[in-house]
Design a protein that fits this description.
The chain is mainly α and about 270 residues long. It contains twelve helices and no strands. About 70% of the residues lie in helices and about 0% in strands.
């Protein structure tokens, strides 16, 4: 069994070796997502989709009002907008989601070995598979939430380890990732929920500092959740519910190959 204090202590100890890189990885991931949105608005302006600044505000608020679509947008510009919007959704789905999993991978690997920030791009090699698995997780949680809020929350914590599992092994099947997450979080959903709540005062403080404190909080939280993942993984391995073949410890230094033992010459009689 583990305690929140133990997880946070281990997280801060690990972060001492890569705090700067962790902040850079988080900023880079967010910057790429923001760049996609920025390009969307630039292209929309170039093609004359928006007739006024108010149009952009309405789109950012998620409301394409009748006034915007009929008075300020022509039929052609509306089509262009929809095409650009679909491209933006695909960018978020196929690039940003795998990058978010790549951020998990960076924190996992950085626990034990020096890791370049470019590690966040590794899951892009399996972008369709990872994006599909994460979308399925979101859909499942949403469907359970339709019953009542509580079942949705329970399922969210049941699937809590899916992105960690995909990060450590991007080639693992979606079905197996869900199975392992369910086994790892069995009996620990409440612990994970309380672990999330333990950062609420930090989050309030970050909002009061215009996000400046977030540069400390984000790596701290991510490293703490990574420690929780490895604690739960160790329990699952001990119970035989997962093996290190399907989830190798990428945070462990690579072991040098053992040189073959030369044959012993026969002793002369």
């Amino acid at each position: 069994m583990w305690s929140r204090k133990e997880l946070k202590t281990n997280a801060k100890a690990a972060l001492k070796n890569y705090w700067g890189k962790a902040i850079l990885a988080i900023i880079l991931t967010g910057a790429i997502a923001s760049a996609g949105v920025t390009v969307f608005y630039i292209l929309a302006i170039i093609f004359g989709v928006f007739g006024s600044y108010e149009d952009i505000v309405n789109i950012q608020n998620g409301s394409i009002s009748a006034e915007v679509s009929t008075n300020n947008m022509t039929e052609g510009s509306m089509i262009i907008f929809m095409v650009l919007y679909v491209i933006l959704i695909l960018f978020m789905f196929l690039v940003c989601i795998p990058l978010s999993v790549g951020l998990y991978r960076f924190f996992q690997k950085s626990r034990g070995v020096p890791t370049p920030v470019t590690e966040i791009f590794v899951p892009l090699k399996k972008f369709a598979h990872i994006a599909g698995a994460m979308l399925l997780m979101a859909v499942k949680v949403w469907l359970w939430s339709l019953l009542l809020v509580i079942p949705g929350i329970i399922k969210a914590f049941e699937y809590y380890m899916v992105p960690f599992i995909l990060a450590e092994n991007p080639e693992i099947s979606t079905k197996r990732a869900f199975q392992i997450s369910k086994a790892m979080t069995s009996g620990h959903k409440w612990d994970l929920f309380v672990l999330e709540l333990s950062f609420i005062l930090w989050a309030i403080g970050a909002s009061c500092t215009c996000g400046i404190l977030y540069l400390y909080l984000a790596p701290y939280m991510q490293a703490t959740f990574t420690e929780a993942y490895y604690k739960l993984k160790a329990e699952a391995v001990a119970k035989g519910e997962v093996n290190l073949t399907e989830l190798p410890d990428i945070c462990m230094p690579a072991q040098p190959p053992v040189p073959p033992v030369p044959p012993t010459a026969p002793t002369a009689m």
